[in-house]
Amino acid sequence: MSYLKFDKNQLINLEQSLPKEMLRTNQAGAYHCTTLPGCNTRKQHGLLVIPIPEMGNKPHVLLSSLDETVIQHEAPFNLGLHRYQGGVYSPNGHKYIREFDCESVPRTTYRVGGVILTKEKILITHENRVLIRYTLVEAHSATTLQFRPFLAFRESNSLCLANDAINRNMEPCENGMATCLYDGFPTLYMQFSRKPEWVDDPHWYNGIEYVKDLERGVPYTEDLWVPGYFQIPIKKGESIIFSAGVSPAKPRQLSKLYEHEIALRTPRSSFYNCLKNAAKQFYLKDGDNMYVLSGYPWGVVLARNTFMAVPGLTLAIHHKADYEAIMKTALTALRHFCETGDASGRIGGIDLPDIPLWALWAIQQYAKSEGDDAARALYGKDVAELISYILENRHPNLKVDAITGLVSTDGTITPASWMNSMLDGRPVIPRTGMLVEFNALWYNALMFGSRLLGTEDAPEITKAEVARWQAEAEKIKGSFADTFLNGYGYLYDYVNGNYADPQVRPNMAVAIGLDYSPLDRRQRKGVLDVVTRELLTPKGLRTLSPKSYGYRPFYLGSPRDRELALHQGPARPWLMGFYADAYLRVFGMSGVSYIDRMLIGFEDEMSQGCIGSLSQLYDANPPFSGRGAISHATNVAQVLATIRTLKKLNV
Question: Under 8 Å CB-to-CB from 611, ≥6 apart: which residues?
């Protein structure tokens, strides 16, 4: 039985099935995303969404959907589903769905009278092409299939409105038709494994609504262009493959191509395998460079997310080569910024003050996985240069105090940390001065660097520096608790001059979850108790304690409401990784079963939201619903890292 399987009763009830989404990517920036019953509920949904280099590499929806119609005895049964103005759903094709499963590829089974039809979708790796295989499992009389393409040709965060500027031409190609609605867009080739009949029947389908955008308080209605339909007879036991791509396909090879791609897939047969598949969906290969997308469906390449996520997305699933490829690209960009101050390029936020700290942490995870010798050989020079870069105060917004050794930053105008929500041009949470996780990461980096490079076979250029690093670490250890630890047993979130922010936030979990913590075991246990009591949920750690002023547990409402709530309560799964490490360091093997039980909350999410993945954030109060981006890299990464840690301890 499939791990991800949904029956008729779950699918025909739109209240239950529309919140469940599925995502497929091709590791080249293209994706396919929709709901389980096939009704698009976000403007970012689409059957083929691709990045267009000439348009800033932003994702663009070319083919929004493909409506199938089963015809028997001249009676049509449309399997499509759209929501129109006023909340009207048509043509209600979901009532024919009997089953959906997603073990290897998304497969929907329809039953129309005596007809049983399966539909399986797959994206081609590193190619902007989606394939759909239709198989007529059962039929008692002659059957014909019609296929009606809904075209958008727009940026994924925009909407299409009926207009006269479109190019209505449909050009024949082998076993199909090709079209390009607007200048500057690539041509879309729609082809079949055998020759169909094309029928011109051009119409605008007006007033299609996206309910998720309606809920978010943003524009949510668009018009889609349908130029006509394909028609093709099909026999019992026969399969037909549809291809949509930006280059012509070879119809005779579609079946072979489909089978080849299926063989590459890891079956989603367990919690771990689901997350392993989700992890690989964030890989983005562009020529010789390899990146990490922050999430879907509106994620981009960000430096902080890259360094925070890359160990879990690669090393935790035994993809060492992918780690090295991604880090090569990211460290090249970071070195360029450190040397020139130039922050331009594909990786956003490379100039933020904590990026060198997270880069050092990411290298530390490689050393833990592959050994110090391997890490020293590949990244020893980077470790030495990044620590020196910070120590010498060369970063424009990260300064080391000569007396305490602690680092400080300015986040009053531009957010300095991952808590980066903005409103009216200002940070919602102006974390400024000495931030607790920055200083914990800095202490951890100095200790790691001393261990890695304080050996006889380390590069000679680092020998004179190691003693200085150790002295700086001792300085920080002596001042960290005095600066951040308060009389209530937890850590201030940030300290700016005489002001110590008393809000109970999860950044202290990072401070106690690192390999090298500036706190002793007793102090870490005290902090852990507060985090457990006030921040822990089944979906990660709250971003603010319910006892704190300004607590907003639900990420709902207008864009303004959601920006205010973003870091004022909603839980983040990625923080659970640091919490788990802290718990295991305090309680040892006796904590393994507890952390294992905590993962159950994430396994439950495999059949919710974006099936097989984890959302960006979760409401901080029951029922802890998923919100934001439907699949988020740092969350998947840290849960995978925790699973790997537990596996090692259980060996």
Answer: 4, 20, 21, 22, 36, 102
Please report where in the chains the tokens 């349908």 appear, as a residue: 226
CB 351 within 8 A of CB 301: no
Are 543 and 571 in contact by the 8 Å Cβ rule? The answer is yes
Residue 103 and residue 605: Cα distance in Å, rounded?
Answer: 16
Q: Which of 486, 483, 487, 479 is nearest to 495 (CA)?
A: 483
Q: Which of 622, 500, 644, 511 is nearest to 571 (CA)?
A: 622
Closest CA to 76 of 212, 227, 229, 203: 229
- How far, in Å, CA of 582 to CA of 415, rounded? 27
Which tens digits make up the pLDDT trace of 12-32?
999 999 999 999 999 899 999
**Dist. CA 41–CA 220, nearest whole Å:** 9
How large is the average pLDDT for residues 383-400? Answer: 97
Q: Which helix (H) or strand (E) holds 192?
A: strand 188-192
Q: Does pLDDT of 207 surpass 80?
A: yes
Record the pTM: 0.95
What separation in angstroms does the CA of 291 have from each of 98, 319, 333, 361, 636? Answer: 39, 14, 11, 18, 16
Q: CB burial class (10 A; 0-12, 13-18, 19+) of residue 622?
A: exposed
DSSP of 616-628: SEE-SSTT--EES
Closest by CA to 286, choosing from 50, 49, 595, 571, is 50
- What phi and psi, each to the nearest 5 degrees, are found at residue 442? -65, -45
State the Cα–Cα distance between residues 511 and 493, nearest whole angstrom: 10
The residues, ordered by sequence, that sit 6+ positions from 251 with a Cβ below 8 Å of its Cβ are: 174, 175, 176, 191, 192, 193, 194, 243
Largest CA distance in the chain: 87
Helix extents (H) in 462-591? 463-484, 507-513, 521-534, 559-565, 575-587
145: helix, strand or coil: strand
Q: How many CA atoms lie within 13 A of 71 on its CB side?
A: 10
What ranges in 296-435 are assigned the alpha helix state H?
A: 303-314, 320-340, 355-370, 372-391
Distant-in-sequence, close-in-space partners of 367: CB < 8 Å, separation ≥ 6? 374, 375, 376, 448, 452
The DSSP output letter for 269 is: -
Q: pLDDT exceeding 70 applies to what percent of the chain? A: 99
d(CA 645, CA 648): 5
Which residues are bridge partners to 231 per DSSP?
146, 197
CA distance 9 to 22: 18
Q: How many residues does the chain have?
A: 651
* pLDDT tens digit sequence for 155-206: 999 999 999 999 999 999 999 999 999 999 999 999 999 999 999 999 999 9
Task: Please report, for residues 33, 204, 454, 632, the alpha-carbon distance to residue 23 in angstroms, rounded to integers and kept in the order given.
Answer: 5, 27, 46, 12
pLDDT tens track for 402-457: 999 999 999 999 999 999 999 999 999 999 999 999 999 999 999 999 999 988 77
- Count of beta carbons in the 10 Å neighbourhood of residue 215: 13
The CA distance from 476 to 468, in Å, is 12
Burial class, 266, CB count within 10 angstroms (exposed 0-12 / middle 13-18 / buried 19+): middle
Task: Pull the structure tokens for residue 540.
Answer: 């990660």
Burial bucket for residue 455 (CB in 10 Å: 0-12, 13-18, 19+) = middle
